[in-house]
Each structure stands twice: as C-alpha cells, then as structure tokens.
Amino acid sequence: QVQLVESGGGLVQPGGSLRLSCAASAFTFSRYIMNWYRQAPGKERELVASITSDGGSTNYADSVKGRVTISRDNAKNTVFLQMNSLKPEDTAVYYCNALSRTTGLRYWGQGTQVTVSS
Length: 118
Known about the structure:
- This protein is mainly beta.
- It is built from no helices and eleven strands.
- It has strands spanning about 5, 10, 20-25, 35-40, 45-50, 60, 70-75, 80-85, 90-100, 105-110, 110-115.
- The strands form two sheets. Strands 2, 4, 5, 6, 9, 10 and 11 form a seven-stranded mixed beta sheet that branches. Strands 1-3-8-7 form a four-stranded antiparallel beta sheet, with no helix packed on it.
- A hairpin with a 4-residue loop joins β7 and β8 (about 80-85).
- The protein is globular and about 40 Å long.
C-alpha cells in the first residue's frame, strides 16, 4: 500500500524555522518528482516546491523563494522541506505529493499542520 507520511509540522513564531519530512513507501520513490503543496483555510491548494527525481533541479513558488529549500534522500525514500523566516501567511496544511512523469500517477500524504503565530 502506497504511503506518504508527513511529519515536522507545528506551531512556530514568526521568523522561526521548521523542517518537514515526508517518508514514502511501496512505490519506486527515486522515479518520482516530489512536490510540497499547502492549503490555507478558505484558499486553494498551492504548489510550494518541487524537486526532480534525481534531485538535480528544484522549483519554488514566488511566495517562498529564498526562504524554503526542498531536498530529497532517495536512499531513505524521504523528501524534506526546510522552511526559514516563517511568516503568518505560511500557516497552512502542508502536503507531500509524488508525481510520475511517465504515467501521470499522483500520490498524496495526509498533510501536516504548520502554524506561524506569536
């Protein structure tokens, strides 16, 4: 059974940092593009960051560029999202997503809550 399990969310003060992790299982992780999405209350889900299957290329939403770094460890089937200089507007549920470029198949995690507040 395919699983994507996010962890690392929580409550942090503005300006603080969090590192999200997403552990994958039951599919060939190293062949999938990995993405982090987020969804704030009352808003549509938005793409935050992407990383290619080999980790050689990354992309970021303009709203997080310079503050967020996506990385992956294919040996451990895990993708990370390091978030620094967090702002209240970063508050959202963050979702891990796996995308196959060859089949278009997508997998989703259950999400982890990030709350930025003083």
